[in-house]
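User: My advisor asked me to double-check a structure prediction for Mobilization protein before group meeting. I don't want to rely on an old file, so could you generate it fresh from this sequence?
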Amino acid sequence: MKNPRLYRRSKQKEGAKRMEFLLDARCVQILKDLKTRHNKSYTKIVENLILNSQISFYKQQKITSALGSLAMLYSSLNATCSNFNQIAYHLNSATLLGENVIHLGLLQDQLKAWSEKTKILNLAIKKSAFIVAHCLKGDKKIFKGMNL
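Assistant: Sure, here is a fresh prediction for Mobilization protein from the sequence you gave:
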């Protein structure tokens, strides 16, 4: 970064810094297109890009903090699905071998309990999606396919 020379008449505000960039040819073309489309200077375009990226960074921080508590829910959902797979494997192997399943009632009770857990987890996931949508303040195109 360079500081502007003191004797130079500049339109810069207090605290502004003069900067030089080495940009790719494609980036230069995009900047030229933005300049002609919006009829703004390169400085204003770069300032807007930086400010908008800072806002999205803060949005990302909000989302990360909102979803931080859901790690346990996702691991619980993973464990529940693993349990479903173990029960299905047990029942399939017993059926193929022609064995009677002694604990069929217990397995059915477990399946009912786990299906209730998955309903609760589903609600928690939808709630987290709502929290994220609220953090984005109307930027809901990410959740287009979700039934919220």
